[in-house]
Amino acid sequence: MALRVPQAGGPQLFKEGYKNLQGLEEVILRNIQATKEMSEITRTSFGPYGRNKMVVNHLDKLFVTNDAATIIRELEVVHPAAKLLVMASQQQEAEAGDGTNYVIILASELLQRAEPLLRMGLHPSEIARGYELAMDAALEQLDTLAVDEVKGWSERSELLKAVTTAVASKQYGQEHVLAPLVAEAVEASMPRDATRFSVDNVRVVKIMGGGLAQSRVVHGMVLPQAPETVCHNAQFARVAVFSCPVDMGQTETKGTVLLHNANEMLDYTKGEEAQMEQAVRELHDANVKVVVCGSGVGDLAIHYLNRFDMIVVRCPSKFELRRLCRVVGANPLARFGVPTPEEMGYCDEVRTDEIGGDRVTIMRQWSASELAANPQSAERPAFADRIQRSPLVTVVLRGATVNALDDAERAVDDGVNVIKSLTKDARLVPGACATEMELSRRVQERAEQTPGINQHAMKAFGQALQIFARTLGDNVGVDSTALVAKLIAAHHASASDGLVGPSIGIDVECENEPRVLDAKEAGILDPLSVKQWAIRYATQAALTVLQVDQIVMAKTAGGPKLPKQQGNWDDQD
Description:
Elements: E1 19-22, H1 24-43, E2 53-56, E3 62-65, H2 68-74, H3 80-96, H4 100-120, H5 124-142, E4 148-149, H6 156-168, H7 175-189, E5 202-208, E6 216-219, E7 221-223, E8 234-242, H8 262-268, H9 270-285, E9 288-293, H10 299-307, E10 311-314, H11 318-328, E11 345-355, E12 358-364, H12 368-373, E13 393-399, H13 402-424, E14 427-430, H14 434-448, H15 454-464, H16 467-476, H17 480-492, E15 504-506, E16 516-518, H18 519-522, E17 525-527, H19 528-546, E18 550-553
């Protein structure tokens, strides 16, 4: 790389306050250092023995988690190069639902491996060309490493093959509890065409108390509050959904009412009561048994709804209200009144249950087997089968603390997202860093066969893939150098007996000395598509950072910042 000679001060190009950085030392190496610091934050949270991070965001909300997606979302990263890695990992989360930490670790390691090549004199474009060739070779070889695939979406054992590893990386030791819950929920909500599976059909409700082993799957919608009325149970009920409050309308302007005598005062509220009674009576005459509202319910409305023996449930979240509309096949109404038959929903069963010390409302549709076994199904109206409904399933999680429940919810979400990615590509590859070590070997062999200067960058790419084994070894607490040496020996060995071959990975159960295992026989399998997207996004992010040779930053907008509040003078003695 040519030496940059400082020039004499010429005409001023930018306004006062601009920062202009360029050259190898000021831009590229600083960017590499920033991405290294970003990677060091999330690296220790990688794998089943990943450490938790305690993050307090700008709203003073506390997060205790080892989920990289949550950590980087709550951190306010300001360095432009580190932001590129954050954006790549967020795209990985949107595309595959897992592997966010994978992207940050690999992209940072690729940049760190490029640093000695830059100091030797290679141009960033030459390194970028070698990385692109190595990425193509890695993705080509990745397709040949598939050892299994999900063959049936209605078989729980097939779903457990893919879900267990994803859940164990977040909640190690609890995968035997959470993975069957995820498999049962996905099996119940899976449509006939698996490619149309929606992750929104599996929702999570967190209820404090008990332990994780008391978690269960409920077929239907679970609302974490009891109905507002006295009536709590209904069967074969028509449902009206309102996004507005169930109460008398308020005028937009203030008014003054002049009352001349006591009779006028007594008659003042009778008109309002008559209107509310008429509205509730019309709902009852339309055979509406259940009312769901997105806002509050007035006391007067509750009085008349109790009189007509109806159920009213509050659902303050608009997202949950949309899901509920999909379950019952209703349209949410913005005004309180009688819905048309097309806007009305239907629910086979609405009941109130007690989970721990909390009362919840369960709204569910019966399956065909339940309808056949229940003698009351003859009372079911004929139009119920014509309503377009969604097979929504709720996973009810129990736990002692809010942070434990949040972590369990993230593990469930990862498991469901892994199933979603497998519906597009059902192939599975060995986990426990076996795939990365085999790709590292094959990419370095391809580099030996590549003529020209590109082979140096390709070798660096192959060596960068070993970072996952080193990271996993460090987090487990064993000598990572000895562990990587064992894995390299196992993947290069040609003998047919013993622990050798492309599926040899890390045994995280080792106590003092590093140990390896056969990931395929141990059932440690990862989706191929997750690794495919992660390698692609990490390489593209690294190339973007590597090809930046100048940074121009404008002066921050706004006036002087206000001083921090010092508090009262005698707060501290």
